[in-house]
Amino acid sequence: MQRIDNLRCYPQPLTAHFTHPNRDTVNAYELCYLAERVVDPIQSHSDTVRAKLVNIRILGHLLSQSGLLSETAISKVAQDIISCREESMANDETQAEALVNLGAVYKDVLLRPFHKSKRQIPDVSSPGSINVSSPSSKSDEESSSSSIRASPVSWASFKLAEDEAKHREDHRCIATRILDLPFAEGLHSQTGEFYAGDVSCLRLCHIFPELAPEAVDTASSDSDGVYSLENVMMVTPDLRARFDVLSLWFEPIEDVPNRYRLCSPWVPPNGLRAGQEITFQSTDPRLALPNREFLAVHAACCRVTHLSGAFGLLGSFEVDLD
Fold first, then answer.
1. CA angle, 28 as apex, 7 and 48 as ends, to 5°?
2. 14, 183, 231, 320 — which has fewest CB within 10 A?
3. What digits encode the pLDDT tens for the residues 204-225?
């Protein structure tokens, strides 16, 4: 994977020196590398060419996320890419266009759901059932490749997840340890003393969105739905705002349980530092911490979004929605 520091230099073109133990994955990457040059042989700056390059680079950069995505998931992407070559009869231009279309599918069914729009974040200001609608219908090709499912959300589910996450995190932000303001106010009512540290109105943050890609390769993503304790955490509003638009993520530290490296192309909020290592802690061993695999998938999607240049396109889509 590219170093964290290199994320400040996005988007990144595909490299001519990609290596991977699986030969099919290497072949798939080389197809993307060739398609990149077929689409843009003269380094054009047109918006149409840029959008095509983004789609191709999404595929290539997904193949390079071995430290975050499972080999099963990477092999699936590789096979989808190779199938484009077989269907295009080895014509470079036709093959490149097929990869552009495939990249658009991955952008819409994998990356875009993680870039949470206001319409995907439920309004839980009052009790009552809330339903998150699935997006508008997609092309036949997109529907056959993957699909997005709508998850029903209820006030009771939200409150249970929030209460358990607050208890697990000791009423603090899981990353900054900033205390929840309502909890601090309760302490003041009981003791008459003001808490001396930082406080904030913490927010419940989802790792997988309400509209979750079905193809995500994790063992327990369907166990309890979007409000599974493994899929939520309490964070400050600034952290959630960054996390929800793929601008901040947590990369698992290899062989160290519940320890993560904070990553962001920009300076993180709340006094945190890019590259800082953070250990997630639970006050109760019965309450599961955020799922390592879930966070790894989110991290991979963040990386690919920035490295491919898709971040600006996802952002402009959200503006258009409003």
1. 60
2. 320
3. 999 998 655 554 555 444 446 8
